[in-house]
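Morning F.,

Quick status update on the modeling queue. The single chain you submitted on Monday has been processed. Sequence for confirmation:
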Amino acid sequence: MESQSVSISGSGRVSGGEYTQVRISGSGRVEGDVIAQEIRVSGSARFQGTVKAKEISVSGSGKFTSRVEADILVTSGSCGIEGDAVVKELRSSGAQRIGGSLRGHYVRVSGVLNVACDLETDVFNSSGRFEIGGLLSADRVEVKLVGDSRAREIGGENIDIRASSGFNFGFSLSRGLRFGVGIGTLTVGEIEGDHIHLEATTADVVRGKIVDIGPGCRIGRVEYTESLEVHPEAEVREKIKR
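Structure tokens below.
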């Protein structure tokens, strides 16, 4: 028996089940667990149950009250997931909140991402703002700071954190940070990786093989095994070679 498709363009609710496509452009509620090839939300939708889909797109307002699994999740509106999320590819240009942990292969943030627990992925790329309540773990962490971001810990092989536009206005990055001139910052407890480049970052501890502490950084302690470079406009209170 072939799976059916369902569409809500006004106000309505449907039962959970297995669908080819779920489209909500009005105000809709899906009650029960859902398995679908495609879910598209351009209105307001609430999913009360676990959701498994090949592709989920939210350009309106979507709320998922339980666990979500998807190959691709694209959000340009507001999307809230109260449970854990397992998503191979997440592209968020809107506001994305996850109440549990996020696990995937590729995470791209150009809006706002909030993850209450851990985030584990192969590649983490951000030109927006993020707040990670636990560990951000990725093989590659590539961040262009826009607004203020936070994480409890960051771990990876290659970690590259850069200020957005600090040198383009004729003043130093550290001076811009001091006077609050529209430059994003990162605040994190610990950072650990092989190759680390940091700008505009405040951290308690940084551990790595090759470490480059750039302008605008305030670091409590750096532990390194191969090399350490510290920019004149950075502050490192303790340096330890292991």
